[in-house]
Structure to design on (151 residues):
């Protein structure tokens, strides 16, 4: 079987702003064809996120987190991940993707009013990203002080 080409799978999704229905259909087809492809999951997350459909973006971010954890060979449960499990300060794809997925989950949770999830994942992001390169600590602070609604 030839390798999956995410670009061809996502054909039709690139017009998300002007043709959202067709884009949503292309995303759904790509997810059916390649549910474990990181590029497909990123495209789905971005589509839903930028459409402000946080309920649909959240599961995509969760799968991205799981795929990144697998690439890093770290626990699937973020609560079990420690800073020494991977070089989270490196500018490499997988550690950055992992942290971005955590913050993405947190942002979706903020928008959906899921307080426990906000605190859980953004606290982990802040712990793993002490320089706050991906903004998890910043977002958590804004949430805790009631300023997240201004975003």
């Amino acid at each position: 079987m030839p390798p999956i080409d995410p670009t061809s799978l996502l054909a039709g999704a690139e017009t998300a702003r002007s043709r959202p229905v067709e884009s949503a259909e292309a995303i759904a087809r790509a997810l059916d064809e390649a549910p474990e492809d990181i590029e497909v999951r990123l495209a789905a997350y971005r589509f839903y996120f930028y459409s402000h459909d946080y309920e649909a973006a959240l599961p995509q971010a969760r799968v991205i987190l799981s795929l990144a954890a697998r690439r890093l060979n770290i626990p699937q449960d973020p609560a079990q991940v420690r800073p020494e499990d991977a070089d989270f300060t490196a500018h490499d794809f997988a550690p950055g993707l992992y942290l971005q997925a955590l913050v993405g989950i947190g942002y979706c949770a903020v928008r959906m009013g899921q307080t426990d999830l906000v605190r859980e994942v953004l606290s982990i992001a802040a712990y793993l990203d002490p320089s706050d390169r991906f903004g998890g600590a910043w977002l958590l602070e804004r949430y805790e002080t009631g300023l997240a609604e201004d975003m």
Q: What stands out?
A: DSSP finds seven helices and no strands in the chain. Residues 8 and 29 are 11 Å apart (CA to CA). Residues 93-112 form the longest helix (20 residues). Helices lie at 6-9, 20-33, 38-50, 54-72, 93-112, 115-128, 136-144.
